[in-house]
Amino acid sequence: MAKPELDIKKALIISAAIILVVIGSIVFYYNYRLRALNEDFNIKLLLMNKEILTNINNVQQDLGAEISSLRNNLTLKIDFIDTSLTSFRKENEQEITTLNSLIDEIEKQSDIKLKELKEEISTIQVESSDFSAIIDDVVKSVVSVGTNQGQGSGAIIDDRGFIATNYHVVEEASTIRVLTYDGNVYDAALIGYDDVADVAVIKVNAELQSLKFGDSDDVKAGERVIALGNPAGLSFTVTEGIVSAVHRTGPNGLNIYIQTDVPINPGNSGGPLVDANSRIIGLNNFKIGGFEGLGFAVESNAVKQVTDDIISQYLSQAQQ
After folding, report:
1. Which of 198, 210, 216, 278 is catalytic?
2. 69-119 residue pLDDT tens
3. Is 198 in the active site?
4. Cα-flanking dihedrals φ and ψ of residue 167, to 5°?
5. Which residue in the list 141, 210, 216, 269 is annotated as catalytic?
6. Of the listed 144, 153, 168, 216, which one is catalytic?
7. For the domain bounded by 134-319, which CATH number is listed?
């Protein structure tokens, strides 16, 4: 009876062993399959990561190229806009400069035209009646010249304070003073002279209203003129007359004199002889004693040549 029980135990042990072997085999197989699947998964995951990284790099490269292209295009457009703005600004500045120049020229021409019109009106008024229309302006450019040697007259020929007079008025003078029409007195300096033509230029440190020279070659006998000066100390006296002759020869042998019937008295010397256009046509110089109505003035063209040379030389020396 003991033998059958032993057999049963052996059978159970063998069955259990077989079951364990089967289960172990199954476990081993599924463990193997699981490792294989895991390795396959890892490989696929690595491949997928690699593909993803590759795609990301490609996208980054594509984006970088696109961004670089966009940046280059944007830079080109900005440069184009900047160049266009610069060009526009330059053109605009040139147009503004041209416009300003045009405006200045128009204003200048307008001033010239207005001045010419004013002079023309004054001439018409003079020709129709007398010299009263221009005397108020002309007399402001006449001065009384006083020295320690005597007295004479002068004509302001430059706004910077240059005055023309006769040389004999200021010859050997140690003191020269100028009285203007508005009552101001200035110390003056002799800056140059031509003793043969009897023309001198003195200067004061003031801005004064000047007269312009006329062309004495255009002066005709019979033309009406006025002489301004300070005869016998009577300041800013105006005397009217006519031109008797031109290109007369004076005591210096030069034919640079206008003969007029305007009385020339002591104190008149150096004052301007003025035509109907408010222009200096001569510088009153001398008269022939014992005769009335025989006055002489240095022609304006000769005066202008002398005074221009003196002033030019003075300014040139002042700049050195």
Report:
1. 198
2. 777 777 777 777 777 767 766 766 776 677 677 777 777 776 676 666 666
3. yes
4. -65, -35
5. 269
6. 168
7. 2.40.10.120
